[in-house]
Structure formats: structure tokens, C-alpha cells
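Fold it.
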Amino acid sequence: MRKEDNMAEKMKKGMAAITVDDGSRRVPIHNIHGEEIGVFYFHPTDIGIIARYNDMVGRFDEITKPLEDFSGDESDEKQVQALREAEKRLYEAVNGLFGGDAAGAFFGNMHPFSPVGGAFYCEAVLKAVGQYISGQFDAETARFSDRAAKYLTERGK
């Protein structure tokens, strides 16, 4: 192999990817028994996530509208279509919230509209997600505030 060819090959390999810390975190999802049921990726410093979460929760009735007359009769094609439409809307909303396939991580093992504790499973997921987002965002904001205060204090000297 010529020296130029070898150099070109090394450059191709070296330029295959750029790695940037975007603040994302890999978050395992556990059931109440501590078993991992999925994984999603989260950006705790994404200042738009709270607004997107609140918007999604505010649209929950719209998302579930196809289920208004749902009786659970899976032999009725109209019922099955209503369930599929609500599921599609929910998946789009959850994926939009996190900017990726988070719905598959949360609902890959259990249908989102399965009844759990007197409510839909997806409602339990959304409640847990809201609590998680709030806690993570608060922690990251506190870390940032501490750092910013340090620099502002040093500048004022």
C-alpha cells in the first residue's frame, strides 16, 4: 500500500464520527419489581422538555379520543381501529417528547392502554415520566446555578 493511500485510509477512519457531549443520559426503565423493561435517552438540560411534557399531558384527552366508545371487543374491527389510532397518537406524542423512539422503550412489553390500578398503563408511565423530568431538570438547574454563581462572583471581584 502506498503511503498516500494509507494516510487517506487513516483519515477516513479518524473522521468517521464526531463525539459531542450533548448532556444526554441513558435511563433504564424498571417495573415495580426492579426488572429492567426498557431504556430511553433523556436530555436533562433540555429547556423545552417541560413545555413539551405539559403540552402532551394537556392533549391526553385528544390522544385518547378514539377510545371514547371503546368496549374492548377485539372482534369488532371498528374497535380495533380505534385502539390502533389512539396507540398511534400516543406513540407520536411520547416520541415527540423525547425526540426518539421512547414509546417503544416504555410500551414494548405492555400495551399502553392496558388497565393497571384503575387507569391506563400509559397514565402510570406519564406520571412517572413527569416526576422524573421534574427531578432531573431541578437537579441540573441547581448544578448550573452553582457554577454560574461561581463565575459571577469571581467577575465581581
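The mean pLDDT is 86.
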